Each structure stands twice: as C-alpha cells, then as structure tokens.
Amino acid sequence: MMGILPVADPVKWAKCQQVNAVNSALSCNRDEVIYLDVRDKFLLPDGSIDKRLFTDGTHLTADGYRVWAESIEPSISEMMKADPLDPVKINA
Q1: Are 1 and 23 in contact (CB under 8 A)?
Q2: Could you report the per-residue pLDDT of 49-62, keeping only the tens digit for each?
C-alpha cells in the first residue's frame, strides 16, 4: 500500500497526511501487505513540494515518476523474491 504523495494545496495536503497516518497505523500481516511512504522524496527541506517533480502541484512530471520509481524499486525487488501467497477464496 502506498502513502499518498504530497500536493501543493495545504488543506488537501493536511487531509492526505491524516489518511497516511491512519493507513500507516493499520495492523497488517507484513508478509502480505507493506506500507510504502516515499513522500519525503517529493518535499523540500522546508516541507513544501518540490515543484520540479509536479506538473500542477498534484500530478507528477517525468522526473517525478523517475523519483517515484527509484523510491519504490528496492521494496518491489524484495517482494519479487518472496514465495507466492496461497490464494484465498472469498465467499459472497
């Protein structure tokens, strides 16, 4: 599960941070679900978004997608080494 990336609008970003806090606190089986929070890669030292990585304060530029891909690659590589999970039958 991915944390929500930062946005330029401070009100929306405050809401995103609340959602991120809830999601990161969820109790999950770490062998099945991991939470990735890469928002710091998109923020400047003062806490504002790095505008070079966003087209409009919300959507990523090509450089933004590059930063995102580089940020999640180690976790994806590690997950790819894991054995497959047994499928779970969901009853309606």
Answers
A1: yes
A2: 999 999 999 999 99
Q: For the beta carbon of residue 39, count every other beta carbon within 10 angstroms.
A: 18
Residues 6+ apart with CB under 8 A from 26: 35
Rounded Cα–Cα distance for residues 72 and 77 (Å): 9
**Amino acid identity for residue 33 in this structure:** V
CA nearest neighbour of 87 among 35, 36, 32:
32
Domains of the chain, residue spans: 10-74
pTM: 0.81
Contact 44, 10 (CB under 8 A): no
Dig out the tokens for 21 from the structure: 């806090």
Q: How many CB atoms lie within 10 A of CB 16?
A: 17
